[in-house]
Design brief:
By secondary structure, the chain is an alpha+beta fold. It has three domains: about 240 residues, Rossmann fold (3-Layer(aba) Sandwich); about 80 residues, Chorismate Mutase Domain, subunit A, CATH 1.20.59.20; about 110 residues, no CATH class. Helices cover about 40% and strands about 20% of the residues. The strands form five sheets. It has a six-stranded mixed β-sheet with strand order 3-2-1-4-6-5, sandwiched between helices. Strands 7-8-11-10-9 form a five-stranded antiparallel β-sheet. Helix 10 packs across helix 12. The longest helix has 30 residues. The two termini are about 55 Å apart.
């Protein structure tokens, strides 16, 4: 394919999809994010031509934000556009949170809805182009973004859903200027209108959102005032900005690879699901490297970015704390915690209180408690423990038990300290009682199966017992 063809909307889309055959072979369907505006209409028309030849299913989704009086009309127009091209389309209503940044809230709600409605074997196709990329870079510069943020939009990325599923997000036109789309759209519309039977005259009219001309919105101000000003002095301003974003993306990827090497050296086997990093490895890094490594770690765990003002606190409050301190840095439902020579990452969900104690009337039968099925194995029919009352109970403090291999009982608290179990995990230990004796301890975490399996379940002197938690 010639360079000229790659600068045409059809050629660029075809070239992009051919590349995805190699790195995303499991994707068999495309979902066009159809706002009804000129850019997404252009993408719909291009995808309707290219997708069938590529052997890919095609459908469209329109997000109904309900923020404008004409929102119903826009949804109807998007459906008409899709019908005119023979592409199935669905409308996704969303509720946008009432916050200071309506733009940001609407964008988050839109992506959440689109990603949730996209199947595992589909990719979400977005119409962002070179001018959008330039605007994004400028916006992020004004917000003080770091290297990852200045990489702006990626041609290939993923949207992570709350359940951990990732949805492919493809932007095939980031190297095309808006003018290339504007030149081709009238010809594409005329081609569809020439088909038999003819489509309604206004079916392929693009939606015009007045917000795109409202200078109160940051992106609109950049689009209509700042970028034209820059382009009068530097005609290739948008292309140069987009090129800078691409270079920054490459550098961000290289930095991420270096951060992964550090994380591999720092990773520790940890009590709990979130993992831990060795403090000595982190403390040896300078501030920039420390931020890059921890930011990479947070992203890999699905945690939100740490607020900029928090970074200086990481070293001062966590890395440089007293050896016996247990400091905590909290934000957006997550926390970084230090215990001894390790740094832990936790979600608030992992720290929710356990339910009240439950009586286990017959330990030979399974018990449902705390959302899990508990089973005891290794009990003989005449085991004297069966004559005692059994119960499961969260640790309350002051318990004693006799660990396997010990000749006398010890406090559960001191035993946990010996085992290196962090304080927040001790508070969520579950005690299995037989009468007045704790016969087993079970670590409670936020998701099964627990790392290490039996490493999270400790049985006392009754070593014939085995506790299974499903």
């Amino acid at each position: 394919m010639s360079a000229r063809d790659r600068q045409h909307p059809l050629g660029a889309l075809q070239n992009f999809l051919q590349a995805r055959e190699q790195d995303a072979p499991t994707v068999t369907g495309l979902v066009v994010a159809l706002s009804g505006g000129p850019d997404s209409l252009t993408l719909l028309l291009a995808a309707a031509q290219i997708a069938p030849a590529a052997g890919l299913r095609l459908r469209a989704l329109h997000v109904h934000h309900g923020l404008h009086a004409d929102a119903d009309a826009w949804a109807a127009q998007a459906m008409a556009q899709a019908a005119a091209t023979g592409v199935p389309c669905a409308v996704l209503p969303v509720v946008v949170a009432a916050v200071a940044s309506v733009e940001g809230a609407a964008r988050a709600a839109r992506y959440q809805a689109l990603a949730s409605a996209t199947a595992a074997d589909e990719a979400l196709l977005l119409a962002h182009h070179q001018d959008d990329q330039a605007e994004t870079l400028l916006l992020r510069l004004m917000r003080g973004a770091g290297l990852q943020g200045l990489a702006a939009m990626r041609p290939v990325s993923a949207w992570r859903l709350p359940d951990g599923r990732e949805v492919a997000r493809w932007r095939p036109w980031l190297e095309l200027p808006r003018s290339a789309l504007e030149r081709w759209l009238p010809r594409a519309v005329a081609c569809v209108r020439s088909h038999d039977p003819p489509v309604p005259a206004d079916a392929l009219t693009p939606v015009i959102d007045p917000a795109n001309s409202d200078a109160r919105f940051d992106r609109t101000l950049l689009r209509h005032e700042l970028l034209p000003l820059l382009s009068r002095r530097w005609p290739e301003a948008a292309a140069q900005l987009a090129r800078s974003a691409a270079q920054l993306a490459g550098q961000a990827d290289a930095l991420a690879a270096l951060a992964d090497d550090v994380l591999a050296r720092a990773a520790l086997p940890a009590v709990g699901p979130s993992g831990a990093l060795a403090l000595p490895v982190l403390a040896a890094l300078d501030d920039a490297a420390l931020q890059a490594v921890l930011a990479r770690w947070l992203a890999s765990r699905g945690a939100p970015s740490l607020p900029v003002r928090y970074w200086q606190r990481v070293r001062r409050e966590l890395l440089q704390a007293r050896a016996d301190a247990t400091p905590c840095l909290e934000w957006s439902g997550w926390s970084l915690r230090r215990y001894r020579e390790a740094l832990y990452l936790l979600t608030d969900h992992a720290l929710t209180p356990l339910p009240a104690a439950a009586t286990w009337a017959d330990p030979r039968l399974p018990l449902l408690w705390a959302g899990r099925e508990w089973r005891v194995q290794g009990l003989a029919a005449d085991d004297p423990l069966l004559a005692l009352p059994w119960r499961l109970a969260p640790r309350a403090g002051g318990e004693r038990w006799r660990p396997a291999g010990r000749t006398h009982s010890v406090s559960v608290k001191h035993w946990c300290q010996e085992q290196g179990i962090p304080p927040w995990e001790r508070e969520r230990l579950v005690c299995l009682w037989a009468g007045d004796e704790v016969v087993a301890l079970v670590g409670a975490t936020d998701r099964p199966p627990w790392p290490g399996g039996s490493d999270r379940i400790w049985v006392g002197m009754r070593s014939a017992l085995r506790i299974d938690v499903l």
